[in-house]
Amino acid sequence: MMFNLKGKTALVTGAARGIGFVSAEKLAENGAAVVLGDINEAQVLESAARLREKGHEAIGVPMDVTDDGSIRNAIELGVGKFGGIDIVVNNAGILSAATIENMQRREWDRVLDVNLSGTFFVIQAALAHLKKSESPRIINISSLTGRNGGFEGSMCYAASKGGVIAITRGMARKLAPFRITVNAICPGSIETDILKGYSPEAVERQKSNILLGRLGRPEEIAAAVCYLASAESAFVTGVTLDVNGGAYMG
User: 9-239: which CATH topology?
Assistant: First the structure.
């Protein structure tokens, strides 16, 4: 174990694959019971089953972060199974590559609805349970694009991920009286299916902006998630943690 999360329950959104699944897996490996939420019901059920086959406590639940009823239902299923929620990892997100000239309002609204509003309303729905926890944690997955405006991503994606950083700081201040820590992680370009939205040339351009000269791995984001979920991070709140190979500097 990297960190001891025994007795804790974590809700991870967008957990059927990629960073979300690997984060759920690493939380489970460190002792947490995990609730995997994702809009892809079949895939999230399969992903949770994979964790159970390894001996972990895990359930998969259908979860659309743009639907308040779906959010509440997913949280109720997790609480019903494991008795509470101690850790929320807001990872659900979608990408856009639309240019400024070609952006349609429908696409703009959809990206902000998932990436930004989804983050807020998942926290809102989980808050009553977090307040009952002895060591409540909220971990929001933002992006390098939210820090610097991005290189290849669209303005709606940049706006959504910048907004995640803003509400992370605001909620860290407002929820501190309840001992709830709220932090954000800003991944750079990570080896996941989401990069399939970019051309090979665009991916190479992204790599050229990374000081360490390579793409990140989902496990490296998951390690940061586990730290921020742990007792070792109890005095850390309102932080934006860059895990992007130095791309923010570049």
Answer: Rossmann fold (3.40.50)
